[in-house]
Design goal:
Layout (H helix, E strand, L loop, with lengths): L2 H14 L2 H19 L4 H34 L7 H11 L24
C-alpha cells in the first residue's frame, strides 16, 4: 500500500481487533448521556425537585389564605354565630342603621354555643 491508502487503512486495522471494547464504550457513553440529560435523567430530576419546592411553598401560602378566609365564615354559621360579627356584616349590607341594634332571643330547645374569640 502506498501513501493515502495506507494512512486510511492503518486506523481500521488497529480498531478491528478491539470492536467489542469500542461498542461497550459507546453504549456506556450513550447511557451516561441519557442518565444525565435524558427525559428522566439527573437534570430532569433536579428540575422536578425545584418545581416541587415551589409548589409546596405556594400550597402553604394558599392554605394560610384559606384559613384566614374561613375564620369569618365559620363565625357566621347558625350554630355558633358571633353576634358582633353578624351585626357588623348586617350593617355593611345595609340591613341595620347606625342607631339600630340586634336583640338576641334564644328559641325553645335551641342550644347556642358561646361566641368564640
Amino acid at each position: 500500500m502506498t501513501g493515502l491508502a495506507f494512512l486510511l487503512a492503518e486506523p481500521w486495522r488497529r480498531v478491528r481487533g478491539h470492536w467489542p471494547l469500542l461498542a461497550a464504550a459507546g453504549l456506556l457513553v450513550y447511557f451516561l448521556w441519557h442518565g444525565l440529560h435524558g427525559e428522566r435523567g439527573l437534570w430532569a430530576w433536579v428540575e422536578v425537585q425545584r418545581e416541587l419546592g415551589r409548589a409546596k411553598a405556594e400550597l402553604a401560602t394558599l392554605e394560610a389564605e384559606r384559613r384566614r378566609l374561613e375564620a369569618p365564615v365559620r363565625a357566621l354559621q347558625p350554630d355558633r354565630s358571633d353576634p358582633d360579627l353578624l351585626e357588623e356584616a348586617l350593617r355593611e349590607l345595609g340591613y341595620l342603621g347606625e342607631r339600630e341594634m340586634i336583640l338576641w332571643q334564644q328559641q325553645v330547645g335551641e342550644r347556642r354555643a358561646p361566641p368564640r374569640p
